[in-house]
């Protein structure tokens, strides 16, 4: 109790009350004995009793004075120092009081000098790094807008950098993340030899790598004058590969049957022609030749029909035909029309289709100009209708349909704004399309219809997410190699996944289960804002209203969500080789480690509750809300008691505790686990 740390307040109060009680009880017994022995009267008797009670009273009053003037100020000072170590810019809620009031000016001077030194150091650093910051900003902007997926890995094949295009290419892939191994993202067996034999002068090496159901064309380059960093440029070659091995291969296979049927048809026709010039022709021979001609003609017609469908499929699978959202097309078209009086108002339900967006915009602009000249209308309506394997793009105006001869003339118009100046008809054939005009059922409107290839896709495109605030961290290359002994790994070099769960209740051993898992990642002592795991789970039972009142999750929120045995393997893949972090980890691990999942979280576990308790044993309150207040951290609105929100707060709390651990010489995972084990008591074991 009286070690190097300040004793807990409850123990001090208990000891104080115990000593006071013993003194008062002893004084009462002693006073009664003296009273019976001497039998004093009046004032003497009062003095006797007061003198016997004075010892206990003095202990009680001195303890009260010490608690108010010394021990409470000491605890407030401890909280303030802990907050300043974690964040020197934190607010000052506990100025020295009681007998420590005289330290106030000195602490203010120390704090202000500390902040002033940090400000001067930050200013000097900013001035010295201004040029580098500008270059970095330009690099970040370039990487964000670059359409080519890029990956940069260090000598140990840990990801140092990836751009937005790479994130789109590997959308929802658990292996993409700063500090993660390239092995988790791409089949390393395909890259092993190439990575080991790359020349140091930056010369490229190319190879085709399978990735799930896609083929990726990978160009590898060793970064010159580096510590073995490798740049990977990726291209999705699946469509080209499918074209080479699919439609184009089938096109080559069609040539032989066409030649065979053509040769058979020509031979039969020549034989029949020769037989007709003879005087006597065998009817059987003539019928056989006619049957051959008929059979080969049908076969040739079928082959030509199949060839036409194959060419149509090749056109629809062309690299320039990509999925388009109709609302995006209409918006881009109106922006292209600019200040001209022409305008298209989208109506009806939007839909997906395939098309060459730049070519379609130029073609629609030309058609609108022709329509405006022909009809005298400047305001049109645009509608997308779903057909059988096709999507109909309609331009609508008040009036009568266009003659087909007029449309045929328009299709011969060259579009000079496009390379090689193709005709409108050429672009229609590229989309396996045509153009015709028809009247509406109301008899007052007409429309120009363009059928376009459909896309098996529903729902509007997701809203544009802001660029990732972190897509590179070159400091990862300076971390210990991944095969280094984890126990001796420095705390700031650890890859940490902070997680939290929400459950149907607190009685996990009596049937309560997980309904939500949230997690975020810390790499190189940086909390990655966008590298998250957030999943709802169907508990297979009703969520009690008392639990929903806390975390806000209802039965409707988890309806249709996957069960825990499906989600937990995904969460294990998200963790990868990281150390896991939680607040009161015993509860969350008990919630996840159920026999039905078949997944064991065997990695080291850090617990901010135990670490805080070990650092500040004398302070009360180590729950998440109290610690957030203690270290001047705040929950964003609506995130408290959500799995992801509490996981983020746990991660920020860890970063606040980190400098306090280092100040005590605790710098490795092994030392931290030993420290938190000292705070594990029977209550935790029961939990």
TrEMBL record:
Q: What is its EC number?
A: 2.7.7.7
The record places domain Exonuclease at 495-663
| Catalytic activity as recorded in UniProt | DNA(n) + a 2'-deoxyribonucleoside 5'-triphosphate = DNA(n+1) + diphosphate
Q: Cross-referenced SUPFAM superfamilies, in alphabetical order?
A: PYP-like sensor domain (PAS domain), Ribonuclease H-like
Q: In the record, what terms sit under GO molecular function?
A: exonuclease activity
Q: Which residues form a coiled coil?
A: none
Q: What keywords were assigned to this record?
A: Exonuclease, Hydrolase, Membrane, Nuclease, Transmembrane, Transmembrane helix
**Membrane-spanning regions, if any?**
12-34, 46-66
Matches recorded under PANTHER family: DNA POLYMERASE III SUBUNIT EPSILON, EXODEOXYRIBONUCLEASE 10
Protein name as catalogued: DNA-directed DNA polymerase
Lineage start? Bacteria, Pseudomonadati, Pseudomonadota, Gammaproteobacteria, Oceanospirillales
């Amino acid at each position: 109790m009286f070690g190097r740390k300040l004793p807990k307040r409850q123990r001090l109060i208990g000891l104080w009350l115990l000593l006071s009680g013993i003194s008062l009880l002893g004084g009462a017994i002693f006073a009664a004995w003296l009273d019976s022995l001497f039998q004093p009267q009046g004032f003497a008797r009062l003095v006797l009793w007061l003198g016997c009670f004075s010892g206990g009273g003095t202990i009680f009053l001195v303890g009260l004075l010490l608690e108010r003037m010394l021990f409470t100020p000491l605890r407030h000072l401890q909280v303030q120092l802990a907050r300043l170590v974690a964040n020197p810019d934190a607010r000052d809620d506990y100025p020295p009081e009681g007998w420590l009031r005289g330290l106030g000016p000195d602490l203010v001077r120390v704090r202000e000098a500390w902040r002033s030194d940090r400000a001067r150091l930050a200013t000097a650093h900013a001035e010295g790094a201004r040029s580098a910051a500008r270059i970095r900003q330009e690099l970040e902007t370039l990487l964000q807008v670059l359409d080519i997926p890029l990956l940069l890995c260090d000598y140990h094949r840990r990801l140092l950098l990836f751009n937005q295009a790479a994130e789109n290419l590997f959308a929802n892939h658990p292996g993409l993340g700063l500090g993660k191994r390239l092995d988790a993202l791409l089949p390393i067996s395909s890259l092993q030899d190439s990575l080991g034999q790359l020349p140091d002068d930056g010369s490229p090496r190319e190879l085709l790598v399978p990735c799930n159901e896609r083929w990726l064309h990978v160009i590898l380059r060793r970064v010159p004058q580096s510590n073995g960093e490798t740049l990977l440029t990726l291209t999705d070659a699946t469509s080209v590969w499918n074209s080479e091995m699919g439609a184009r291969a089938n096109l080559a296979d069609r040539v032989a049957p066409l030649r065979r049927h053509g040769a058979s048809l020509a031979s039969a026709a020549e034989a029949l022609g020769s037989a007709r010039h003879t005087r006597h022709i065998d009817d059987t021979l003539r019928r056989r030749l006619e049957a051959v001609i008929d059979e080969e003609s049908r076969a040739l017609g079928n082959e030509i029909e199949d060839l036409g469908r194959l060419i149509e499929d090749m056109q629809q699978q062309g690299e320039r035909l990509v999925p388009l959202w109709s609302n995006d097309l209409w918006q881009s078209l109106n922006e292209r029309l600019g200040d001209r009086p022409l305008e298209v108002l989208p109506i009806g339900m939007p839909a997906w289709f395939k098309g060459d967006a730049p070519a379609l915009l130029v073609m629609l602009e030309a058609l609108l100009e022709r329509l405006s000249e022909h009809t005298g209308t400047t305001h049109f309506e645009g509608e997308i209708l779903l057909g059988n394997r096709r999507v109909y793009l309609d331009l609508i105006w008040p009036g009568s349909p266009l003659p087909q001869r007029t449309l045929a003339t328009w299709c011969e118009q060259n579009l000079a704004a496009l390379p090689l100046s193709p005709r409108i008809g050429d672009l229609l054939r590229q989309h396996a399309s045509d153009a015709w005009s028809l009247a509406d059922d109301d008899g007052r409107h007409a429309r120009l219809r363009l059928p376009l290839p459909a896309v098996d896709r529903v729902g509007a495109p997701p809203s544009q997410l802001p660029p990732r605030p972190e897509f590179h961290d070159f400091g990862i290359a300076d971390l210990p190699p991944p095969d280094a002994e984890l126990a001796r790994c420095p705390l700031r070099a650890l890859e940490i996944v902070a997680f939290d769960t929400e459950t149907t209740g607190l009685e996990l051993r009596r049937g309560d289960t997980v309904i939500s898992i949230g997690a975020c990642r810390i790499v190189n002592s940086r909390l990655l804002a966008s590298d998250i795991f957030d999943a709802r789970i169907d508990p297979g039972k009703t969520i009690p209203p008392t639990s929903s009142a806390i975390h806000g999750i209802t039965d409707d929120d988890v309806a249709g969500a996957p069960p825990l045995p499906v989600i937990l393997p995904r969460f294990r893949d998200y963790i990868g080789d990281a150390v896991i972090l939680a607040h009161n980890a015993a509860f969350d691990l008990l919630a996840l480690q159920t026999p039905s999942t078949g997944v064991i979280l065997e990695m080291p576990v850090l617990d901010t509750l135990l670490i805080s308790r070990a650092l500040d044993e004398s302070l009360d309150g180590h729950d998440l809300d109290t610690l957030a207040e203690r270290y001047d951290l705040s929950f964003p609105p609506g995130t408290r008691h959500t799995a992801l929100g509490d996981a983020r707060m746990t991660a920020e709390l860890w970063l606040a505790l980190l400098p306090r651990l280092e100040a005590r010489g605790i710098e490795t995972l092994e030392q931290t686990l030993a420290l938190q084990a000292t705070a594990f008591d029977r209550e935790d074991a029961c939990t």
